[in-house]
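User: Hi! I'm working on a homework problem where we have to compare a predicted structure to a textbook description. Could you give me the structure for the chain below?
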Amino acid sequence: MAATKKTAVRKAKKGERIRQVAAIPFRLGAGGGIEVMLVTSRTTRRFIVPKGWPMKGKSGRKAAMIEAREEAGVLGNILKQPAGTYSYWKRLENRFVRVDVVVYLLEVTEELPSWAEEGKRQRAWLAPADAALLIDEPDLSTLLRDLGLPQAKPSGGR
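Assistant: Happy to help. Predicted structure tokens:
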């Protein structure tokens, strides 16, 4: 992953847009409605979805699933088709760069009691409309607010 992040930073320094992948962990709540999980960022503590850099040798889907495990402590089945995309401005040491994020839905089958970034992040299950209110990126907020699940079966487990 570090080599890919270095590549992304190198591209950013040249003024090129860079790419990340993200997961929206979801489950069906007690009332049958969809709930999504948000996590806090490590530095600003704002609510975000688990996301990270593409990983060499791994599909975007697989990388998003790995990020969800590391940042949110969840495992499950990731849907094959992306749920959508959003863009945001990422702060680097001495500049901001535009980042395009491809988002995948992850049907959560297990919440880990302990995970890699447990001490650095909080996680919360919310209705999509409530999650949308907590997100700063307008395109991601819209994606969450309008979230619908495709009829296709999830694929590609852990």
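For your comparison, note the following. The chain has four helices and eight strands. The beta strands are 18-28, 34-40, 47-48, 51-52, 74-78, 84-91, 96-111, 123-126. Good luck with the assignment!
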